[in-house]
Every structure is written in structure tokens, then in C-alpha cells.
């Protein structure tokens, strides 16, 4: 099988808040990233989400990555696949998301 990724992925783990707007209550849940690129993200979460759904993501980048400033990333995307997996011996879900749009906001309010 050939590699389909067109952008480099970075093995990064940091907290993420997700919301699936199509779900009735559109409750938020938390998870963590496993790897990230400019076009996609792979998340580890606890609650099931349907493949094909739109998704809202909010992530606070670690200060080590953002030269000491707090940087908030808000993104929208589509869930490509959901797969069961074990994390530390506990059942979790791996979620592959294609990023459709993202905004980066620094703690000083500057939007990139």
C-alpha cells in the first residue's frame, strides 16, 4: 500500500476539546492528540463519534511549541475513520480527522 499523506505528521500529544455539531446535544468531550499535520489530526478519545461527521476542535498548544506564548487553535474538520484501540491497557477510540479550516489565536489576541 502506498503512502497517501501529502504533509508531514508530527508525533505530538496535547489535550483537545471536541464537539460534533450534528449530535443532538452537541456536548463537548476531551481527548488528546497522537499526531498532527497542517491537514489532519489523529485523536484519542473515550466516547464514540460517527465517521463522516463534522467536528469542531479546540487545542491549546504547549508553550514549548509556541515560544512561551499561549496559542489556541480552533479548527473544523470531518471525521474520516474511527477505530477501537488500547491506550495504557484501557479501551479508547482513535479518530482520524481531515482539517478543513483552522484559526490560530495567540494569547495577545492576534489572530493568524
Topology, element by element:
Layout: E1 15-19, E2 28-36, E3 40-45, E4 54-61, E5 71-87, E6 90-106
Antiparallel strand pairs: 1-2, 1-4, 2-3, 3-6, 4-5, 5-6
Keywords:
6-stranded antiparallel barrel, 112 residues, Thrombin, subunit H, 6 strands, mainly beta, globular
Characterization of the model:
The protein has 112 residues and is mainly beta. It has one domain (15-106): Thrombin, subunit H (Beta Barrel), CATH 2.40.10.220. It contains no helices and six strands. It has strands at residues 15-19, 28-36, 40-45, 54-61, 71-87, 90-106. A hairpin with a 3-residue loop joins strand 2 and strand 3 (40-45). The model has no long low-confidence stretch (mean pLDDT 86).
Briefly say what this structure is.
This protein is mainly beta and 112 residues long. The chain is built from no helices and 6 strands. The protein has a single domain, classed as predicted glycosyltransferase like domains (Thrombin, subunit H), CATH 2.40.10.
Amino acid at each position: 500500500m502506498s503512502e497517501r499523506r501529502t504533509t508531514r505528521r508530527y508525533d505530538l500529544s496535547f489535550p483537545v476539546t471536541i464537539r460534533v455539531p450534528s449530535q443532538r446535544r452537541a456536548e463537548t468531550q476531551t481527548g488528546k492528540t497522537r499526531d498532527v499535520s497542517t491537514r489532519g489530526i489523529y485523536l484519542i478519545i473515550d466516547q464514540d463519534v460517527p465517521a463522516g461527521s463534522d467536528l469542531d476542535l479546540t487545542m491549546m498548544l504547549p508553550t514549548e511549541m509556541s515560544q512561551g506564548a499561549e496559542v489556541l487553535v480552533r479548527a473544523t474538520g470531518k471525521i474520516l475513520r474511527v477505530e477501537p484501540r488500547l491506550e495504557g491497557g484501557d479501551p479508547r477510540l482513535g479518530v482520524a480527522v481531515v482539517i478543513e479550516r483552522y484559526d490560530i489565536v495567540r494569547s495577545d489576541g492576534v489572530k493568524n
